[in-house]
Amino acid sequence: MSLKSGIFPDRWQVAAAALALAAGWIHVFVAPEHLEEWVGYGAFFVLVSVLQMGFALLLLVRTPPRSQLLWAGVLGNAAIVALWVITRTAGIPLFGPAAGEVEVVGALDIVSKLAELGLIACLVVMLRAVPAEMNRRLIAA
């Protein structure tokens, strides 16, 4: 369960990168339909896909990844999942022509949320493997 310090990514990094790419590609796939509904919705999905795919690349390039990167992935993807829950229960918050409307849960929604939750789980495992001394230095900085 430890992160390797060599030049090759750890299996958790590869799994997390694959899950981030999967979620990112799903967001790319649904961006056009959201763009047709309103440019703001489409831009959101494009931004999320770029961030998730960029995150996947950073995970593979940075070996071992810094805990700041891992925390950014946990918090960013948790925010995406939380927003999805809100849009499926309380409605789309504040903006756009569908503000207040509750979205229908779809198959791609579920797949992307499972990918994001799996990604978060991988990142938490990786965070637990970061040496305690490294975390203490980061907190002190």
Q: In terms of topology, how is this protein built?
A:
Elements: H1 11-37, H2 39-61, H3 67-89, H4 107-129, H5 132-140
Keywords:
141 residues; mainly alpha
Overview in brief:
By secondary structure, the chain is mainly α. 74% of the residues lie in helices and 0% in strands. The relative contact order is 0.17.
Structural overview:
The chain is mainly α. It has one domain (11-140). It has helices spanning 11-37, 39-61, 67-89, 107-129, 132-140.
What class would the helix/strand composition place it in?
Answer: mainly alpha
- Ends apart, CA distance between termini: 26 Å
**N to C succession of SSEs:** HHHHH
Helical residue percent band: over 70%
Rounded to the nearest angstrom, the radius of gyration is 17 Å
Mean pLDDT: 91
How would you describe the shape?
Answer: elongated
Q: Strand tally, please? A: 0
Determine the number of helices (DSSP H or I, runs of at least 4 residues): 5
The structural domain count equals: 1
Low-pLDDT segments: none
Largest sheet geometry: none
User: What portion of the residues fall into strands of 2 or more residues?
Assistant: under 5%
